[in-house]
Write a structure and sequence with these properties.
With 195 residues, this protein is mostly helical. It contains eight helices and three strands. The protein has a three-stranded mixed sheet. A hairpin with a 7-residue loop joins strand 2 and strand 3. Helix 7 packs antiparallel against helix 8. The longest helix has 22 residues. The chain is elongated.
Length: 195
């Protein structure tokens, strides 16, 4: 520093300040903060796995693990994961009572995981459903003001999953066979609307 024209006394004061900060500064405080976060995270994952998974899914994208990886890990740790359902899902993932889950809650997948469904149409679905459950695909489309592409996406989600319950428009006691026929009809109808 003296070679650059800085007085020796000033250079020594700067050096002492830097050395003093190095004793307690970044390394210890960073390590302490990280340790606290790591402990809290491990505690949540161990004692409240459904809430932990739900929080991680709602914080996506984070860049570490995909939603599918997180869901599979949750299932391996006893967390029940309920599929997207327009009659029950909010925009974000939520917790709902479930007898089959380790801590008594299942993670209900949120509408945010329907590919191509934006926040505005998702909010319209939730808002329209709050007034009354949807009676049919037509009722959902009309009250939530969904365009053809979104109807096809919702129908395709059901088709691709291979399970009727993935996107359910009708909550009734009909037989599974009857529901499958109805959903196939809704899917084909949505495809006709698209074309």
């Amino acid at each position: 520093m003296t070679a650059k024209g800085i007085e020796r006394e000033f250079a020594e004061r700067v050096f002492e300040q830097i050395r003093g900060f190095g004793e307690y500064g970044f390394p210890e405080s960073h390590a302490a903060s990280f340790a606290l976060i790591a402990y809290a995270t491990a505690w949540l994952k161990c004692h409240r796995p459904a809430a932990f998974l739900c929080g991680l899914l709602n914080a996506q994208p984070m860049g570490f693990y995909s939603a599918a990886t997180l869901i599979e890990d949750g299932k391996r740790h006893g967390v029940a994961v309920a599929p997207i359902n327009v009659q029950r899902s909010d925009w974000d993932c939520t917790l709902e009572p479930a007898a089959g889950s380790g801590e008594g809650f299942a993670v209900r997948m949120g509408l945010r995981y329907v590919k191509g469904l934006g926040a505005a149409p998702g909010a319209r679905i939730v808002s329209a459903r709050a007034a009354a459950p949807f009676a049919s695909l037509d009722d959902c489309a009309a009250r939530a003001r969904l365009d053809r592409d979104l109807l096809v996406r919702l129908a395709a989600l059901n088709r691709d999953s291979g399970a009727v319950e993935k996107v359910s428009f009708v909550e009734s006691r009909r037989s599974t066979r009857r529901r499958k026929i109805e959903f196939r009809w809704h899917f084909h109808r949505a495809n006709r609307l698209r074309g």
